[in-house]
Known about the structure:
The complex is a heterodimer of chains A (506) and B (333).
Chain A: H1 25-40, H2 51-58, H3 82-99, H4 119-129, H5 144-157, H6 166-173, H7 193-206, H8 209-213, H9 217-227, H10 244-256, H11 281-287, H12 305-318, H13 321-328, H14 331-339, H15 361-364, H16 368-377, H17 396-406, H18 424-437, E1 439-443, E2 460-464, H19 489-500
Antiparallel strand pairs in A: 1-2
Helix pairs in contact in A: 3-17, 4-5, 5-7, 5-18, 6-7, 7-10, 7-19, 10-12, 12-13, 13-16, 17-18
Chain B: H1 40-54, H2 60-72, H3 77-89, H4 94-107, H5 113-122, H6 135-145, H7 150-163, H8 169-181, H9 186-197, H10 228-244, H11 249-261, H12 270-274, E1 277-278, E2 283-284, H13 287-298, H14 303-316, H15 321-332
Antiparallel strand pairs in B: 1-2
Helix pairs in contact in B: 1-2, 2-3, 3-5, 4-5, 5-7, 7-9, 8-9, 9-11, 10-11, 13-14, 14-15
Amino acid sequence: xxxxxxxxxxxxxxxxxxxxxxxxxxxxxxxxxxxxxxxxxxxxxxxxxxxxxxxxxxxxxxxxxxxxxxxxxxxxxxxxxxxxxxxxxxxxxxxxxxxxxxxxxxxxxxxxxxxxxxxxxxxxxxxxxxxxxxxxxxxxxxxxxxxxxxxxxxxxxxxxxxxxxxxxxxxxxxxxxxxxxxxxxxxxxxxxxxxxxxxxxxxxxxxxxxxxxxxxxxxxxxxxxxxxxxxxxxxxxxxxxxxxxxxxxxxxxxxxxxxxxxxxxxxxxxxxxxxxxxxxxxxxxxxxxxxxxxxxxxxxxxxxxxxxxxxxxxxxxxxxxxxxxxxxxxxxxxxxxxxxxxxxxxxxxxxxxxxxxxxxxxxxxxxxxxxxxxxxxxxxxxxxxxxxxxxxxxxxxxxxxxxxxxxxxxxxxxxxxxxxxxxxxxxxxxxxxxxxxxxxxxxxxxxxxxxxxxxxxxxxxxxxxxxxxxxxxxxxxxxxxxxxxxxxxxxxxxxxxxxxxxxxxx
Amino acid sequence: xxxxxxxxxxxxxxxxxxxxxxxxxxxxxxxxxxxxxxxxxxxxxxxxxxxxxxxxxxxxxxxxxxxxxxxxxxxxxxxxxxxxxxxxxxxxxxxxxxxxxxxxxxxxxxxxxxxxxxxxxxxxxxxxxxxxxxxxxxxxxxxxxxxxxxxxxxxxxxxxxxxxxxxxxxxxxxxxxxxxxxxxxxxxxxxxxxxxxxxxxxxxxxxxxxxxxxxxxxxxxxxxxxxxxxxxxxxxxxxxxxxxxxxxxxxxxxxxxxxxxxxxxxxxxxxxxxxxxxxxxxxxxxxxxxxxxxxxxxxxxxxxxxxxxxxxxxxxxxxxxxxxxxxxxxxxx
Lengths: 506, 333
């Protein structure tokens, strides 16, 4: 039975996950009428939309902040639609934070006008996020493996030693494993690739033979064989949907657990002519690239930042990015779309064309860049950092400013944007994005793996960016994460090497 | 609520079932992480759910139980999959299920399990040889709440392929009304592209044409047989929408997709894009037009391309400075 709440520290952010109540149909149609009315009107100047906006606009920005991050974009269409309403409102909310003049911001501000990372607050927030939740959080019941992953990943980025919760992680995850293979969102819930991904990565982060031995690889392999589809992709669970998340999570699991590549003899995907778990997967991902250049959740749908990361990371597991990404993606289209995800003055990333910036895309979109840059750099020639490289194709400064100025909640934790609550999901992925901006990720020509399957996925290294490139302080530095596995490099390597040494009876 | 006093424990209909209590791992002695203080009714309902699922029970009472669990936590993906199985096993009226689902969908707008469930039902040719009449009306009701809802658009795209609705007039009408209401609705533009240029009956999979084939990734989206009138019509549509709001990436990139589908280059629109960029007066009304011209000039690796990229880098889209520099390098090399 679950531990009675109150025995332990309760989380401090009840109901943070609850979105603002949706508009009723009546409210909505009223809003639409207003919109239509506004269509005839001129789009208001962003600086005069509210009293607060006027006050903030007249107040000078912190002297270290370039005008790029304090002024609305140079071209603004007069036509007002729901998209511009939301975009203008977001800008009004972000500007005081970008300028470093909001009352809701904590300092100190560095000479670049960027506030410090509130490290202690975020550490405390994340430790709390691993403790008990009140009844209002029942909607998270199927996301507990995620809650554990987000908490551990965030803490690891902040330099905390998560091995102290080693036993608690094992205790939590053990009942989530199903005898037919894989992990569900909780005890008695059917196995799901997202839950299994979060469970495996959590075990990798705390490490140790007892954590690794918890995973039943034989049944996991059988289960993956049942999820493999005739078009090359994976369903997320038996009877569930097929999408790019499934492809990525499956590839992470197959490569980290060093599972056999061959499909189990009973896998129906064999009827489609496939022999291996990875057959047809690159082709499936190729069909997920949309005409805009970005990548969608399933073929034919709109390009989306989170799915783009899943697809590119999956391709970077299947083989060296300069081969797999270059083969399956139209690179010029992809580059243009990905680059267009970064907005000014916000500095952060949006997930789709004409949508708003959101801190979580610091990882989903930001995490695509090292993979794409590696694809453009070509085959690694040495064991050290390459001398010739395309370098950063996005603005690290912009993203750092958005993260540190707009995404830090004054009470700890990180968030989508100003005005939103913090939650463990955003805290994890905003920090992951910040860490990515603080490092150069590159591949070497060597890998610690004895088994050469997916060995290029284990050839990644990183080095910190130079002080002259940064708008953040030394004390804001985070741990480097593996750009594919989204855990420390060593944690991924140790797990893989442990399973390489374990016999697998097929 | 003490043991045995819950709604299920006190109901004779459930007497035959021994609920399976939640194992949260605390028996190991270590305190499990991220535990939720579940409401008593949820704890009880899910303990019965585990029991009936373990027995793979296909019954009316199990169906009612799934509805109860969904009402307590619609994000419980397992219960949806179990419910779909029961509905088919008991040969339930799926139109009735859809009606119920409509209410749940409007109540939980961000939930995605609902949309996969709907797809599982709708995929049954035995029940739905053709699309139910009210289906598209309901989707428009959903779009009135959130016109960019990713899960609803994913479902709608699946519907098109499943029922082969590419040329259904209603599809284009709905897309046009959404683009009319918000010309920046990129989801609607994407849907339009798939209606016009997506692979059809003869193609086994969705996506851009040629994607995932033996052809190079650079060939994606280029049609082998082109209806030039269709291409011209779509280009005119895109032009009209660009004139409404020139700084709108959706419409410009749709036009690029259209030209690509037709195997025609961006050069064709040099004149149109030029209308938004007056280099003499310095008046620029669209950064996308500047990018368009840069791409046209880049084909000849001209200095004019560098001039356009520099304009983007320094004035109209400077957050993407590194990308524009990369493009300049490519032109110069």
